[in-house]
Amino acid sequence: MKKAIQIDEKDNVATVTSDMEAEETVEVLSPDGEAIGRPEALGPVPFGHKLALVDFERGDRVIKYGEVIGVASRRIGVGEWVHVHNVESATVPTSAYRGE
Amino acid sequence: MTEFWGFERPDGSVGVRNHLLVLTPMDCSYEPARKIAAQVEGAVAVTQHHGCGYDEMVANALIGAGRNPNVAGVLLVGLGCESLTSEILTEGIAPTGKPVETLIIQEEGGTLRTMERGVRILQGMAQDVADLKREPFPLSRLTLAVECGGSDATSGLAANPAVGVAADMLIDEGGTVIFGETQEMTGTQHILARRAFDEETGEAIHAMIGRQEARMRAMGVDSRFMSKGNVDGGLTTIEEKSLGAIRKGGTRPIQGVLENSRAGLDSPSRPGLWLQDGTGWDVPSVTHMVAAGAQVVAFTSGRGSTTGHAIAPVLKVTGNPKTYERMRDNMDVNAGTVLDGSESLRSVGERIFWAVVKVASGRKTKAEALGYQDFIVYSTSRIAERLLGFC
């Protein structure tokens, strides 16, 4: 089974270690190597990108490395690809990366 | 309690190597220095390329290099007309109690006489050094510098978090860790400041990153923006990018900001995690952390850096299993095992911790065994710093 790594136990996103297709199941490993969940990818997620471990409402904080890396700009479901299309930086508007 | 085996110096510091450093105040005297070092076992020659005028930042770095506990003895080789004189360097290094000798080419009467005397001086030092014995010391006497270079998507995912685990373990056993690369911290001021030991340190962190952002703005660069490559690789925000870099320092409280400027080059004053205000360019960053006292370096690289340092052993960690296979001659630790789930981040971190202890006790890193002796001193632009009101 393909893997995703939760880098810090406080994280609510995990990084996938290979390209994921939609509906593929991924095993999420904690920093201690324990399997903490087997979500199904809601859509494709490329290698090195993030997958939601929880449901996010708009404005919810996205946590990686045990710290807030941004806030959800719209609803995100478990297993969904988490990136610039649904997360906003608290420092620089992510919309800048989308060329808006 | 974990111990490492090192060499105690007269000032109480502990070296993990017994380098004889042939130090030149500027590059005019480097050629004979290099040849002297080549003649004597355990000797290494280093220089700097910022000219012979007196630049406090360069002087601080060279003095720090000479003071590093991995250096058992120093031979200064000057030309004779430089403003950054051998006396200035001797004054900085000699208080450590290690032998410091000086040769001035113009006074010795040329290259050949200097080389002959230099080789004889170093030959004697090499014999004396061979008598030194390693003894066990607690990790409270060890300082690890962490650095990254040639990063890829696996750096923030595997190598940096794993080195961070090792950094936390070292600090929990009373050790010291230094991390730098100020420009990599953009967008995380508030996070780093929250981890600061006290309010003053938090303010120093904000000021330090603010200065770097101002330098970048002066060059017409907004350091808070990421490249298309960053975003394509999976980095969503500047916070995420910066956190991936600083994670190699682990998660413990930040004891303070180490000055690395014309005003001085600070060394950690107590154990724990320290932040050095420094360049994002890897070899000079390592050089200035070594000048601040680091005896060992853990260096992460996804794409595969080959670097090693003249004064401190550099342990290289890659999070990319393909890089590890392709560049086994250069990579000491494969952290890429976390990608297929065959090993946890914690377990890789523990391996790195033990590798650091072993290297501190004498085992050579791959870069050392291949004879790598990188050493680059950097200095900020005095003109730019004046115009920005930083000095």
> Largest contact between protein chains?
A-B, 39 and 33 residues
Radius of gyration of chain A: 13 Å
Low-confidence stretches of chain A: none
Evaluate the radius of gyration of chain B: 21 Å
Q: Given the structure, what is the number of helices of chain B?
A: 15
Query: What is the rounded distance between the termini of chain B?
Result: 44 Å
Strand content of chain B: 15-25%
Give the number of DSSP strands of chain B: 16
Helix content range of chain B: 25-40%
Question: Per the principal axes of the C-alpha atoms, what is the gross shape of chain A?
Answer: globular
Please name the defining characteristics of this protein.
heterodimer, A: 100 residues, mainly beta, 6-stranded mixed sheet, globular, B: 391 residues, alpha/beta, 4-stranded parallel sheet, 40% helix
Describe the fold and architecture.
The complex is a heterodimer of chains A (100) and B (391). Chain A has a six-stranded mixed beta sheet, with no helix packed on it. A three-stranded antiparallel beta sheet of chain A has the order 6-7-9, with no helix packed on it. Helices cover 0% and strands 32% of the residues of chain A. Chain A is mainly beta and 100 residues long. The mean pLDDT of chain A is 93. Chain A is built from no helices and nine strands. Chain B has 391 residues and is an alpha/beta fold. In chain B, 40% of the residues lie in helices and 18% in strands. A seven-stranded parallel beta sheet of chain B has the order 10-13-9-8-14-15-16, with helices on both faces. In chain B, helix 6 links the parallel strand 8 and strand 9. In chain B, helix 2 packs across helix 3. The longest helix of chain B is centred in the middle third of the chain and has 20 residues. Chain B is globular. The termini of chain B are far apart. The mean pLDDT of chain B is 96.
Topology, element by element:
The complex is a heterodimer of chains A (100) and B (391).
Chain A: E1 2-5, E2 13-16, E3 26-29, E4 35-37, E5 50-52, E6 61-64, E7 67-72, E8 81-82, E9 87-88
Parallel strand pairs in A: 1-3
Antiparallel strand pairs in A: 1-2, 2-5, 3-4, 5-8, 6-7, 7-9
Chain B: E1 3-8, E2 14-15, E3 19-23, H1 30-39, E4 43-46, H2 56-67, E5 71-78, H3 86-93, E6 100-104, H4 105-108, H5 111-129, E7 135-138, E8 143-148, H6 153-172, E9 176-179, H7 189-194, H8 199-218, H9 228-232, H10 238-246, E10 254-258, E11 260-261, E12 264-265, E13 272-276, H11 282-291, E14 296-300, E15 314-318, H12 321-326, E16 333-334, H13 345-360, H14 366-369, H15 382-387
Parallel strand pairs in B: 3-4, 3-5, 5-6, 8-9, 8-14, 9-13, 10-13, 14-15, 15-16
Antiparallel strand pairs in B: 1-2, 1-7, 11-12
